[in-house]
């Protein structure tokens, strides 16, 4: 199962009110590095599907959410736990960079 | 054990891959997690011969990658962390090879000023093409004076109401056509002989301060001040010049060979002068042909 897609409309319900920690990949179609991040995020979503929710949000179609969290660079991933931001990484961090943050958030 | 491993995946790496695959060397390209090189952060490339209407940088790199794969190059998107060139066969992480081509390119330089790291992703950015749309009706500062700085400034004008280009010297080192476009643009203002001293802001960038004490209100700072060769993992293994570029050309029979027989290098990791996609691709081709000849001669 690839990463789910969030939108301005369902961000509150699916991310901020989620019982599991959530990793959100802010991306856009026009951005070269985002295209590198996409498949890595999909792969991690599959590997960690029982432990945390991993999803993407297209900043072009969902400018309100990107603006609310001050995302000014893409790709940016933000981790949320109990509705609060706990970690953030700007620029494509590679699988290892993302894994490090996932493990940190999960306390592994 | 492989005949040839190519480390890196910009125009030099993929071109080396195309030539080596066609020479039946069954190359493995360790492309890195952030593959495709500097062109992945660009929009339209206007000077790539054979595309008169221009081609998008990421699209060009995807084409090169698939072209190498088509001829049988294997590509793994992994970062190399450790090499041992002290004895043949050479060791590259868990892999072994008779010959190696290094095409790791160069990475963006940071200014190294206060506020830069803290505000990265919150207004401090290295990919204007990625982030320009966030600057709709906003103000952006670009630091640098080369082609990248000019392209970034022009990309930002599509969204920002004002772009300030901050140039350390009194002229642009960009190509004339790019420099002219920037200097003529009504919404780009150039600050000559100016350097950023610090970037100010809390949750996001609010202003920059120059070394002359002047402050400028801005929503973002884009860094395009140049690159440094990505040679950290090769330091104790092959000869580098004082700036960290790999030294080649010691052996007349193999112009792209490094100080270690069997280890070749091509592209921006070697080239501190031209730094073009086409020169990198050309050097990648040369390295593949040199490696092919060398492998034949050691048999």
TrEMBL record, chain A:
<feature type="site" description="Deprotonates C-terminal active site Cys">
    <location>
        <position position="25"/>
    </location>
</feature>
<feature type="site" description="Contributes to redox potential value">
    <location>
        <position position="32"/>
    </location>
</feature>
<keyword id="KW-0676">Redox-active center</keyword>
<feature type="active site" description="Nucleophile">
    <location>
        <position position="34"/>
    </location>
</feature>
<keyword id="KW-1015">Disulfide bond</keyword>
<feature type="domain" description="Thioredoxin">
    <location>
        <begin position="1"/>
        <end position="107"/>
    </location>
</feature>
<dbReference type="GO" id="GO:0005737">
    <property type="term" value="C:cytoplasm"/>
</dbReference>
<feature type="site" description="Contributes to redox potential value">
    <location>
        <position position="33"/>
    </location>
</feature>
<feature type="active site" description="Nucleophile">
    <location>
        <position position="31"/>
    </location>
</feature>
<dbReference type="InterPro" id="IPR013766">
    <property type="entry name" value="Thioredoxin_domain"/>
</dbReference>
<dbReference type="GO" id="GO:0015035">
    <property type="term" value="F:protein-disulfide reductase activity"/>
</dbReference>
<dbReference type="InterPro" id="IPR005746">
    <property type="entry name" value="Thioredoxin"/>
</dbReference>
<dbReference type="Pfam" id="PF00085">
    <property type="entry name" value="Thioredoxin"/>
</dbReference>
<dbReference type="InterPro" id="IPR036249">
    <property type="entry name" value="Thioredoxin-like_sf"/>
</dbReference>
<comment type="similarity">
    <text>Belongs to the thioredoxin family.</text>
</comment>
<keyword id="KW-0813">Transport</keyword>
<keyword id="KW-0249">Electron transport</keyword>
<protein>
    <recommendedName>
        <fullName>Thioredoxin</fullName>
    </recommendedName>
</protein>
<feature type="disulfide bond" description="Redox-active">
    <location>
        <begin position="31"/>
        <end position="34"/>
    </location>
</feature>
TrEMBL record, chain B:
<dbReference type="GO" id="GO:0019430">
    <property type="term" value="P:removal of superoxide radicals"/>
</dbReference>
<keyword id="KW-0274">FAD</keyword>
<dbReference type="Pfam" id="PF07992">
    <property type="entry name" value="Pyr_redox_2"/>
</dbReference>
<dbReference type="InterPro" id="IPR036188">
    <property type="entry name" value="FAD/NAD-bd_sf"/>
</dbReference>
<dbReference type="InterPro" id="IPR023753">
    <property type="entry name" value="FAD/NAD-binding_dom"/>
</dbReference>
<feature type="domain" description="FAD/NAD(P)-binding">
    <location>
        <begin position="3"/>
        <end position="284"/>
    </location>
</feature>
<keyword id="KW-0560">Oxidoreductase</keyword>
<keyword id="KW-0676">Redox-active center</keyword>
<keyword id="KW-0285">Flavoprotein</keyword>
<dbReference type="InterPro" id="IPR050097">
    <property type="entry name" value="Ferredoxin-NADP_redctase_2"/>
</dbReference>
<comment type="similarity">
    <text>Belongs to the class-II pyridine nucleotide-disulfide oxidoreductase family.</text>
</comment>
<dbReference type="InterPro" id="IPR005982">
    <property type="entry name" value="Thioredox_Rdtase"/>
</dbReference>
<dbReference type="GO" id="GO:0004791">
    <property type="term" value="F:thioredoxin-disulfide reductase (NADPH) activity"/>
</dbReference>
<comment type="subunit">
    <text>Homodimer.</text>
</comment>
<protein>
    <recommendedName>
        <fullName>Thioredoxin reductase</fullName>
        <ecNumber>1.8.1.9</ecNumber>
    </recommendedName>
</protein>
<dbReference type="GO" id="GO:0005737">
    <property type="term" value="C:cytoplasm"/>
</dbReference>
